[in-house]
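#lab-general

N.A. 3:47 PM
ok so I finally got the sequence cleaned up, no stray characters, all 246 residues accounted for. can someone with queue access submit it? mine expired

B.Y. 3:52 PM
send it over

N.A. 3:53 PM
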Amino acid sequence: MTPSSTPRVALVTGGSGGIGKAVVEKLAADGFALAVHYAGNKAKATDLAEEISASGGQALAVGGDVADEKAMEGVFDAVEAAFGGIDVVVNTAGIMKLAPIAALDLDDLDRMYRTNLRGTFVVSQQAARRVREGGAIINVSTSVTRTQLPGYGAYVATKAAVQGITLILARELRGRDITVNTVAPGPIATPLFLEGKDEATIAGFAEATPLERLGEPQDVAESVAFLAGPARWVNGQVLYTNGGLA
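B.Y. 4:20 PM
back already:
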């Protein structure tokens, strides 16, 4: 390929399902070459990469624990070897366990800390070292950092930390022409959100937004694509993608 036809390259953690899959599909449609990261479901990530390739795009599946710095260093190495560099890193990998603070199993706290906080930090650290000039680092938080719903205390603690990492990293990369932002979705119809909720609870979340519906993964993908592409003057921000939820 000639330099003018070489696509920009994006690595999406947790890219095989939910919001991550929608982000991969949107960025592929926008002309990016994609690295579809997975932690446990290699088959889904491989299938998605093959679908993109069959449609004329470029993609590969890459696996590893986001909280393991050696594993993620290997992931970045593999992407650079395949595509020549990395322009955009999107951190969508995450887990959510809900319980009142007084009742939370601390093992669940540790699991969320490892994936949501340490994982985001490890990936952001590699991205800060290796994303090319003109690139973007995009983390994913939650709008519950503002709505403060009961039961979300431990999850919000990890995601509020993600926002803090984002805002500081944006300023640490001064002079590199790399933007760093967080997308904070509201209620999105993904398995992660729907798990354990009855129909009445889900309907209540939908009615809470002025648009009177749950968000779809594609809604978040549009915000990510904006930050990954044309939004070069948006930096060090939290973009609340939540249909008007407070």
